[in-house]
Amino acid sequence: MSDVTRAKHGRPVHHWRRDVVQLAALLTAVAVADAVADLIGHGPDGPALLLVSAVVLVATAAFHTWWARRHGHAPPTDDTGARSPAAGRQAGPSGHPEPQPAETDAEAGIPESALWRMRTTVKDEPGSLAALCTALADRRVDILSLQTHPLAEGTVDEFLLRAPGDLAAAEITRAVRAAGGTGTWIERADAHDLVDAPTRVLGLATRTALDAAELPLALRQLLGRCTIRQLPAAPVGGGRGPDAVPVEGVLEDTVLRLRAPEGGVITVERPYLPFTPTEFARARALVELDARLGPRVPHGHDVLTLPEGSDITVRRADTGDVEAAKAMHERCSARTLGMRYHGPVGDADRYLTHLLSPRYGRTLAVQTASGRIVGLGHLLWDGDETEVALLVEDAWQRRGIGAELLGRLVSMAAEAGCESVYAVTQASNTGMVAAMRGLGLPLDYQIEEGTLVITARLAEPVEQEDAVVVRRAAEAQ
Questions:
Q1: Architecture of domain 114-194 in CATH?
Q2: SS3 of 148, please?
Q3: Are 381 and 211 in contact (CB under 8 A)?
Q4: What residue ranges do the domains of the chain occupy?
Q5: Which of 359, 420, 417 has the alpha carbon at shortest distance from 385?
Q6: What sign does the dihedral 412-415-418-420 (CA atoms) show?
Q7: Residues 315, 319, 324, 330: is their CA dihedral positive or negative?
Q8: Within a 10 A sphere around the Cβ of 44, how many other Cβ atoms?
Q9: Tens digits of per-residue pLDDT, 4-25?
Q10: Using one digit for the tens of pLDDT, what is the confidence trace for 136-170?
């Protein structure tokens, strides 16, 4: 009479309380039936009534049995109407326990899946890509996106992969090599890579259209980890100027050279991975868009009140503010200028055109209610690094202006995806040191001959195993 209702630790569990209740109900039913039979049996028509009742009970039981066999009962449901977890399970011999729900990867101790960006070259012939996809599928690697770049010597295929977390990059490259792939490169990807290429390019074009300072950042995000530099139109001491680069640009394996809109040369270097013609075309399109739109800087500004009650305005600055910046230089002491430029004070003015150009970064200006500039903060794209620099007029120092500028510049760097920013100053510049410490970020200090370099880390560095580059050297393994 016992009923197996569920399994626990692989063994059936019997409910003894239910058995007791069922036994009590049976005894009660027997007692009631005996009392009814005794009452009816002593009546005038007692035997006939008992016989009719027995026939009715037998007929009812037979009908119930026929109906149950013809129409199966619906599985039990809970109060919400959802299907019971046990519904649909087939009964089996007692020697075979019910199948248990499969464990998830996390419950079983298996690492979660990982995203990878991979590039490899295959022969330009039918079936080569299919063999590569089959090799990846054999190792439970899911292909999320694929781009192909036909070249003269073959086809370069770019993949975004989702692989089991315990599958190493070296194992993926071995599978690709066995399937015919050559020149394989692979590194960890993140959620940003899930955006398809056309959508990402359109987003970068929009950012470039709104702000000329976004062009270097857009190129870096488009082409991955690379170093971007802009050479002036007339290089000092000769060298490769804009005349050495045709209007359509130059693609040289791991280097791109493009004509800058204002007459210089933009060079993009990525030594670890050659550029494809598609990447070159996209980079050139961004530069052409920037050239057509001309100089532009967002016009937003914020009005702040200093602790002593003075109002200041913080806004973006560009080359149109060169004269106002020179006037601020004239009001600054030699010590203040020396702290900022680390060189002859007389040469300070010649840096302003470069510093205020959106091509080299972003500049914030602090001006008073009368419109006079009293502070400048620069965020400079230095190749693949980012520098911050501050200059505050002597009469406006120690009022929190430097800390305000630095905080805004660091926020800009974080929004641009920079992993760190650094400031070059003198060891005696206690104001700059205090402003950097006020950021509340991890800091690294390097000092040499009185020059102090303070680096603030905005994001944790990528672990070595999370950024694996496998190139032709892996082919020889």
A1: 2-Layer Sandwich (3.30)
A2: strand
A3: no
A4: 1-38, 114-194, 197-293, 301-457
A5: 420
A6: positive
A7: positive
A8: 7
A9: 344 434 444 445 566 666 676 6
A10: 999 999 998 888 888 777 888 888 899 998 899 99
Which residues face 380 on adjacent strands? 361, 387
Which residue reads 């950012």 in tokens?
Answer: 207
Contact in structure between 193 and 358 (CB atoms under 8 Å): no
Question: Is residue 184 within a helix (H) or strand (E), and if so which, with residue range?
Answer: strand 182-188
What is the spatial distance between Cα 391 and Cα 412, in angstroms, rounded to a whole number?
18
The answer to whether 250 touches 269, Cβ cutoff 8 Å, is no
Residue-by-residue DSSP string for 317-376: E-GGGHHHHHHHHHHS-HHHHHHHHSS-GGGGGGGHHHHT-TTSEEEEEEE-TTS-EEEE
As a whole number of angstroms, the distance between CA 87 and CA 311 comes to 72
Burial label for 278, CB within 10 Å (0-12, 13-18, 19+), is middle
Tell me, yes or no, if the pTM score tops 0.70: no
Q: How many residues does the chain have?
A: 477
Query: Domain 301-457 is classified in which CATH homologous superfamily?
Result: Gcn5-related N-acetyltransferase (GNAT) (3.40.630.30)
Q: Are the C-beta atoms of 268 and 223 separated by less than 8 Å?
A: yes
The owner of tokens 């015919």 is: 180
pLDDT, one tens digit per residue, over 219-241 is 888 888 888 887 775 554 445 54
Which residues on neighbouring strands pair with residue 302, listed in sequence order?
Answer: 314
Q: What's phi and psi for 330, nearest 5 deg?
A: -65, -25
Report the greatest alpha carbon distance in the chain: 135
Chain segment 367-389, per-residue pLDDT in tens = 998 889 999 999 998 767 889 99
